[in-house]
User: Fold this.
Amino acid sequence: MLSKLFPIAMLAVFSIYSVSAAPILSMQERSELIDRITKQRFEQVLPDIMKRENIDMWIVMSREYNEDPILKTMLPSTWLSARRHTMLVIYRPQDSRALETLAVARYAVGDIFEKAWDKEAQPDQWQALVKIIKQRNPKRIAINTSEEFALADGMSSTEYANLMTALPDTFASRVVTGEKLAIGWLETRSELEMQHYPILTQIGHDLIAKAFSNDVITPNITTTDDVVWWLRDQTLELGLTNWFHPTVSIQRADDEKFDQIKAFSKRPGENVIRPGDLLHVDFGITYLRLNTDQQQHAYVLKEGETDAPEDLKRALATANRLQDILTSNFKLGRTGNAILKMSREQAIEEGITPSIYTHPLGLHGHAAGPTIGMWDAQEGVPVQGDYPMYGQTVYSIELNAASVVNAWNKEIRIMLEEDAFFDGREVVYLDGRQKAFHLISASKQ
Assistant:
């Protein structure tokens, strides 16, 4: 199945830039593709999720510049925000017909949401919405409210109060949280998305490989911040964006010990890169409304060295083994907390010191779905960690493994993060994963 989803060589796309080997579409081409993807998601992804969650109608609404995160994933590519007060109604008929998608707004919302409000005939937008609801008589009406999942909690308190005031009691009693419906919409990938996701991942890898090379780094001169800003500039030059500011950090043969709090909550300070350093990058880009989240390592060779020290290579292999343990425990219906517990126990039995903090990836960087640990919650995460795993989802396989480097007389952490697809049966990395260090020469050739 995965081979059918990733026909990269067959894609009718071309590169308009040369920094990355992966093809990057022009703005017009990517706009057209985003709209095709959104249409396919409404036709092939959402009906099954609405049926699974037993939802007849989904109401998503936002005022301009205060957008529900769900609504933003449904807008046409040329809409950068809601317009005025945008109300979207998605109705699932009981006779297996296609979803009915309506815009209770002054405008049709792209080609998907048909304009369903005539302000001149009915000046009250809320009553126009109520009329649509009455005509369809849904038994369960979902709205985006959730105490635990922020991405499913996009309806403002004002919108909620106005909706419940406008609805007759008969229909107000049918309003339910759309929490699981919203998560399902966000976490489930379509075939068209998965044809292009590997390209996005390759672009990220290409930029990291370039950043961790002598084209960018001159040991004893280049700083970690120089590399960070190179990544930001190159992302922008490709016509892409970053969903978080990258970090580049150093572990080296000194007396500094790895600090969990510092590593995950404080940006590393500017530091000159020197021979013998172990470099780490955390980097993510956004393209076609999808996101990457990647962490890799590089080693700066000393004079006379042609490869990284054996202790470091063994440490990387140990972290790769932890990846294998984790992904082998992915199973439909299994919760994030169960996967975390099983994986940690297996790793510890094998003599690995693990820290696992893997998360879903897709329309957001830290996306909706089961949380599989956090760096400061290795015992499990209530609620988000209890959410079950579904198929057709993408995950950022994020973790670290501690290893002792004898030559440095200290413990280091190999911190890896690679993007992978779970089809319900197996996990496949979208563009491979790091199994060898990027190597940087002590001096430019």
Observations:
- The radius of gyration is 24 Å.
